[in-house]
Amino acid sequence: MKYKIVVFDLDGTILNTLEDLADSTNYALSVFDMPERTIEEIRHFVGNGIRKLMERAVPQGTPESMIVKVHETFTEHYKKHCADKTRPYDGIKELIENIRNAGVYTAVVSNKADYGVQILCKDYFPGLFDYAVGEREGIRRKPYPDSVNEVLRQFDVDRTQAVYVGDSEVDVQTAANAGMDVCMVGWGFRDEEFLKENGAEFVVHSPEEAWEFINK
């Protein structure tokens, strides 16, 4: 195979986490008597980490001190409820198993808080990822390539032998900044038209199509 490692985004790529993110966001907003957000609003707010999700969800002009409180409340709730409604997309486990059976490393790099990444990967994909990392203090979030570069160093893989699989404009930018190939999926939180407007050359629509791309 051309690739020695496949690096996946998490939210919207391998797991449909939208409902749990929306539930915890609206719980945190309701605690502080702020108006709740729709699923579609949350869909467009995610991608740049939980802190940015909170900034986008609260009413415009909300003081910084209040955003911090909403963020803390979200975190407390989401730690307990991050897997209530979350489910893997159909065919994703089989895709990851095919990749591993071909002798290729698998990893997750996400802007989701690291505690959430570790919990969800353990719960839904036990033993299927060689490395998983989320947002941590001191490490710049995607689209900066810091975490992706760390993964490549961990496995001593050249970026020309790596591909990033994601579902958002942030993932397009991350792959470009890391100097690696990208496989964009159309089943996640952004539609194909939006992805192409933001730099995606093409979009796959099933895990089977993703396997064909990776296995080319």
UniProtKB/TrEMBL annotation:
Pfam families (alphabetical): HAD_2 (PF13419)
Family annotation (InterPro entries): HAD-like_hydrolase_sf, HAD-like_sf, HAD-SF_hydro_IA, HAD_2, HAD_sf, PGP-like_dom2
GO annotations of cellular component type: cytosol
One example of a Gene Ontology biological process annotation: DNA repair
MF (Gene Ontology): phosphoglycolate phosphatase activity
Coiled-coil regions, chain positions: none
Highest taxon above the source species: Bacteria
Gene3D superfamilies in the cross-refs: HAD superfamily/HAD-like, Putative phosphatase, domain 2
Entry-linked PANTHER family: PHOSPHOGLYCOLATE PHOSPHATASE
Protein name as catalogued: Phosphoglycolate phosphatase
Natural source organism: Lachnospira eligens (strain ATCC 27750 / DSM 3376 / VPI C15-48 / C15-B4)
